[in-house]
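Q&A log
Question type: sequence-to-structure
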Amino acid sequence: MSTITETAQTVGQSLKHSPAIRAAVDAIVREVQAHSARIVDVRPPVSGAIADYAAMMQRAADVRGRALLYPYLSSGVGNGALIELADGSVKWDMICGIGVHFFGHSDADLVAAAVEAGIDDTVKQGNLQSNFEAYEFAETLLNEAKKQSRLKYCFPCTSGAMANENALKVCYQKHMPASRVLAFKDCFMGRSVTMAQIGDAAAYRVGVPLTVGVDYMPFWDQEAADRHGHTRYIDMVIEHAQMYVDRYPGQHACFIFELVQGEGGFNTAPREYFKALMEFCKANGIAVWDDEIQTFGRLPRMFAYEWLDLGEYVDVLCVGKLTHACATLYTEAYNPKPGLLSGTFTGETVSFRVGQRIIERLREGDFYGDDGRFARHHRAFSEQVRALAARHPDWFPKPAGAPDIVGGAGGMMRFTPFGGDKTLIPKACKHVFEEGAVIFYCGHGPYHLRMLPPLPVFDEADWPRVFQCIERGLAKTAAAM
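Response status: OK
Response body:
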């Protein structure tokens, strides 16, 4: 905020530019910084807090009907990649709300944006009645998206699953009466009724009636590509797609692309693979829908389609997680008719203010490119994994179905101990948590340990400290085998 000027025309402008408000925000931020600075390293729970923490965990379990996966309840203060839990313990947060908290914990700039948002007249903004923050957020996001694509419009919403629902509606309307969907094997789309049907995980749709026609395509298989030759392998996949189109002529509305798979295992593929499939879609009147809810912002370029130079093909795009406010973007050709996209809420003022600031910082930072901060972090992470495997080769047998023990791209990081065993990987997560780092898993045979660290605020020199916790945790898993 700036100090009040004579140009302020409304009471609202006068409030937002008030020197008293500015001083109050600055005071709050300084106090947060002073407390945040006290969190400097991993530590065990504070003496006497364990019983209270156990009671809090039980209350949480009683409310939701089952225990939390991790005994994780934050105290409300952290310092970058370090987070203090409500029992006083401190851990490295290497999963960040499954990719949401990309600027870590207690970030002064984002705290200021959130506090400033708190003085608005309402907490929620809606499609019928809104302040301007929702459109500033959308405008900021679109300005970046337009640089390498034909995307022109943006519709904000409250969750990644809702962004995907909106994208599907846009595709359905454009290509009506087509109602089938092409998607990759092992994709994940969210947990609404429709998205649970499209996502390739049977456990997530138990009891859900199957009303959406989904045809699954193979994701890139490096071993098969090496065996057949890359060109022949791509031709074989296109033949697979043609089989579906021949079986259901004119019935496919869209093909959902995760350019780096998230829940499916942080799997990557070469540009020529996606390019061939997207050109197939164009030739057959099928929308190219790019789901970047987990990838956006954390790869070697801001958008995954930029990284792979595929922006010319994208018709519809979804972003979320680290943007805080989620959104569906689309080209002029996919701009829907009135009434298709709406809802009581578009989101919270704080989400739009913080989300806009995050995009601005990503735009202004030194994060992207082959030698940008995110690429350097991924190299440092890979080095730590390979050094760990060299010390403990028995922990790292070659996983079946994965070309390497380490993978992903940029801030999407995964590695595969214990051969990707389904029973051992979740146990390893819990053991690593006990030793001071919060990580998670992904994949479907093999299973992997994954990280979505707060790279913009994480020091490359701290990777050895994180892997000390990981090594101790994996040692416990190995000892229990």
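Response note: Residues 373-391 form the longest helix (19 residues).
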